Amino acid sequence: MSIFQALSTSGSALTAQRLKLDVISSNIANANTTRGEFVNGEWVPYRRKMVELETKKETSFDQLLKQEINLKGVRVSRIVEDSTPFRAVYDPSNPDSNGEGYVMMPNVDITKEMVDLMSSSRAYEANVTAFNAGKSMMEKALTIGK
Questions:
Q1: DSSP 51
Q2: What is the pTM of this model?
Q3: Pair 34, 91: CB distance under 8 Å
Q4: Separation of alpha carbons 52 and 9, rounded Å
C-alpha cells in the first residue's frame, strides 16, 4: 500500500464519518418533531435515520486480484430509516394528539444518538491522526534527500 493510498483511505473515512455525524445531529434536532412528513392524509412523526458504511473497492482487473489487501477506504452505502415503532406520549393539550390524548413521538433515543455521536467523533479523530501521520512521513521522506 502506497502512502497516497493510505491518505486516500483516511480521507474517505473522514468523509463518511462527517456524513454520519450530520445524520446523527439531524436525529437529535428532530427528537421532538411530531410532524415529519405528510402520509395518507395525516402527519407522521420524524423517523430516525441511520448511515450504513461499506468498504470501497477498486474495480480494475489488477485491483480485483488483490482486493483482499487493497481496500480503498470506506463509503456510505445508504441512509436508512429506523423501523422501530414511534413512542406514544400522553399529552392531551398537544394539537397533534389523537382522540385518547396520546401524541406519537419520533423513535429517536437521545442516549443512543449520543453514544453514536461519540463513537463517530472518535473514529473521525482517529482518521485525522492517521492522515496526519501519513503526511508527516511524506514530509520526512522529502527531507532525507537534502
A1: E
A2: 0.81
A3: no
A4: 17
